[in-house]
Amino acid sequence: MKLFFGGVRGTGPVADLGFLEFGGETTALLVEGLAGEKIVLDAGTGLRLVNARLGAGAPGAPIQLLMTHYHLDHLMGLPSFGPLYNKLWAVEFAAPLREGVAAEDAVRRVLAKPFWPVQLEKLHARLSFTTLPAQAGQPVRRGALDIRWCAVHHPEGCHAYRLDEPATGASLVFATDMEWALATPAEQRDFLNLCRHPRPAHLLVMDGQFNRAHYAKFKGWGHSTWEDCVDVARTAQVRRLLITHHAPQNDDSLLLDVERAVQRALPGAGLARGGLEAGFDE
Ligand SMILES: [Zn+2]
Ligand SMILES: [Zn+2]
Predict the structure, then answer these.
(1) Which domains does the chain have, with CATH numbers?
(2) How far is the CA of 168 from the centre of ligand 2 (A)?
(3) How many Å lie between the centroid of ligand 2 and the Cα of residue 189?
(4) How far is residue 178's CA from residue 17's CA, in Å, rounded to a whole number?
(5) What pTM did the predictor assign?
(6) Residue 117, Cβ neighbours under 10 Å: how many?
């Protein structure tokens, strides 16, 4: 299993010179399994880089687009997602219901007039929509990958996903947009279970947009601090932590300072970067 970060920026994209190290595209990740499975996590502007990677391979493999939630920073790249306009691709949108909204409702709305000139029915790819159960009892199998998920604390709801590749032992937990400090004990327990079972995850990618010193000002905004990420990674005994959903005003020099603090707190941890590929070899 390989993981590619198309975008790791929260809230909105940025494109200034001081943002080249961590990148300015909003959340979109591509997971490629050993057997050619292609899973895209979220549809932020980072889909631009995901497009380029997918375009380098032969079209036709089904793409599953797992959606954490429908805030615009996680959806604004969708209208220009290349495979939607190519009849050789099949794209399956999948998510649990959130506040009664299914993935199809959200996708249809974002492509509706007057927001975009090409509506859902005019797209060329073979499209399908799957509503996942509210909580995964048994994992859902996608090729040779197992998919698990749980709800996390965020305005309008959000889900964290876990992908396991039993053949290689690789595992990823992706938890963007989660406010750990406001999560209920049950929400915290469910998320720690997701990180720990069936075994502590190789890699946890978690929202750490804020820091504890300034968190009080942003309480209720739906995001965690990098210190929360370190606590969760330690408690769940994940092998590696990468922090994501960087605030759009946080430039490279500020994020490099944050990364040094993260590494002092948890050696081996770091901040996710747009364009970065992560393997699961060791
Ligand atoms: Zn977000
Ligand atoms: Zn959000």
Answers:
(1) 2-276 (3.60.15.10)
(2) 32
(3) 21
(4) 29
(5) 0.97
(6) 9
